[in-house]
Structures are given as structure tokens and as C-alpha cells.
Amino acid sequence: MTSNSLPGTALVTGASSGIGATYADRLARRGYDLILVARNRERLDAAAERLARDHGVKVDVLAADLTQHEDVLRVEARLRSDAAITMFVNNAGMGSGSALKDETDLDLLDRMVAVNVVAANRLAIAAVQAFLARDRGTIVNTASVVALSPHFFNGTYSASKSFVLTFTESLAGELQGTNVRLQAVLPGLTRTEIFERAGGSVDALDPEKVMDVSDLVDAALAGLDQGELITIPSLADAGLYDGYIAARDALGPHLSLRKPAARYGVTDAASDAA
Question: Does the keyword Oxidoreductase apply (predicted)?
Fold first, then answer.
């Protein structure tokens, strides 16, 4: 077996619980060695011991708080320097259940943007550059369905996940023709600890709308295997998303023109004034 046929190493952020921990388990089952990144070193060590024992893979831990720039730089350095890394699961994130009109902790929102946007952006770009140099690699960015329906959730959180989606789509265009693959995963409501951390409870939600985290990650990996750029695990009819993209593309020829649209009634007035 050649070195290029081996899975290599996956670096997973937010790996101590929820979606990230499930990705770590599923990728270990696929034969990936792992680098687990999260704030809680104790939980990381316990996860590393379990994954190495259960799946016979090598597991390293990197304790890092991605609200802190110095810690982001340490993760970036590992992505760039470790030639064994072939997959980056860009999953770390924060949420808030408060409406912005009621939110009193603006520092929390700053930390959310630091993790969901600033760190996610920097680490993904570092991974792209490293993978291009290695001529292979896969990046999975965790977004959210609120990127498509922003009015259903906290505005800062929704905007941060819209960034992840748009960033992934744009970057995929840049990477066409290379051996670097991209995927954005858009979870809906998922049974993880993020609700408790945001001050709510997943048990208060309609159980028919809440997906088990194992099902979510299994579907996301199936989408990756099928070559999807955008994976919405709960979407049964892929044609609905294709229709959304087609409608968006139809706007393209109308988004930047020399004169304002006639419906605003300003073009003739401007000409008369001249």
C-alpha cells in the first residue's frame, strides 16, 4: 500500500464533545490518525485514550481556546508543519440563544465571531495552503441551516454561519482543478451540548426536528463520499437546494449595472439635472 493510499491524519477542532467528537470517532473507524483540538485538556485526553484503544489509531491532543489568537496560531502551525495531515474538520463553534435586542453580554458575541469566523477563516486558509503544497487534502467546514434561514436564530450566530457557507462556496471555485476538496455541512437542530452552553435545553425542542449527532455526522460523511460541496443532512429532495442555487444564479446578470433600475425612477431625473 502506498503512502498516498493511506487516510493520513485528520485534525478536528471542537473535538471534545458533540459533532467534533463524533467526527473523531467516525474518522478513526476509517483508519485516520487524529489530532484533537478543544479547550478542555482533560476531556481531550480521555477521548484520545478511548479512540486509540478502540480503533488502533494514533491520537494526539492539542488543547487550544480558539477565542485566543495565540492558540489559533498554534493550531495553524500544526496544520502547516505536519505533513501527515490530510483532512481538516473545521468544526469548533459557539452559539447564543438570546435575541440580539435582549443580549447583554456583547463580549460573548465577540468571542462567537472570533471562533465561528476569525479562527475558522484563518485555519481553513492555512489548511488550503498546506494541502495545495501536499497535492491532496480535504476540508470540512461546519456551517448551519441558519445560513439559509437567518431569521430563525440569533443574528450574530446566523451571520457567522452564513460566512462559513459563502466562504466555502467561494473557496471551492478557487480550488477547481486541484486535489483539495471542500465541503460545508449545514446541520439543523442537533442533539449536542451547544444548547446548554447557550443557556437553553435541547429537550425543550420538538423532537421531530432534532437530529441525533451520530446520524448527522454519518450523513455528512456520506455526502462527502458522494462529492457534495454543500451537505444538508435533513434535506430529502436535493432538487430543492439546486432550485435555490438556480434562482440565486438568475440574479447574477442584474446585480451590477451602470444605471439604477427603472423601478427606482432616478435615472431620468439624474439625466435632467446634468
Answer: yes
